[in-house]
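README: folding subset

This subset contains proteins for which both the sequence and a predicted structure token string are available. Records are stored as plain text. Below is the entry for NADH dehydrogenase [ubiquinone] 1 alpha subcomplex assembly factor 3 (172 residues), shown exactly as it appears on disk.
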Amino acid sequence: MAVRQRAVSALPTLLRTLRKEPLKPHSHVNALPSLRRAFSLYDQINLIDQVPEDQLRFQGYNDTGFTVNGVEYEGSLLCVGNLLMSWKPKKFSEITADSLSLFQVIRPIPEILILGCGRNIQHVDPELRRFIRSTGMKLEAVDSRNAASTYNILNEEGRIVAAALLPHGVSA
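--- output ---
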């Protein structure tokens, strides 16, 4: 009961602090929702563990790339757990089994591959779907903004997740 009372008494102070926190606008980068901020109430009352500082977090995106852990990256990215690398495809039609062949050799196998299709969700070729399924992963194809956010959430939950992301400016 004492923990609940402490949490309830800390809530007004926490909300005031969150409201006073200024937003940091980036003129050319669209910010992704901050999970840290969304979970900060729970962090204050110790309901969930702290997220490790070395974990990859997509913080923003623009038409040509992404901001990850404060660093801006241009072009397509491939992420597996906390490993980030440049990825060759520049448009959706260039995403093939060959461009995702890394998933035939990495272990442990991610439970899901989040495919960021660019500005809009694209139809994934059945042959590519079969290849991804043959590796043991599930596939979620969404626009790149939502792909980055979903990756953040699943990665912070400690799930083994992968993301293959085209820049947001890519369209069919």
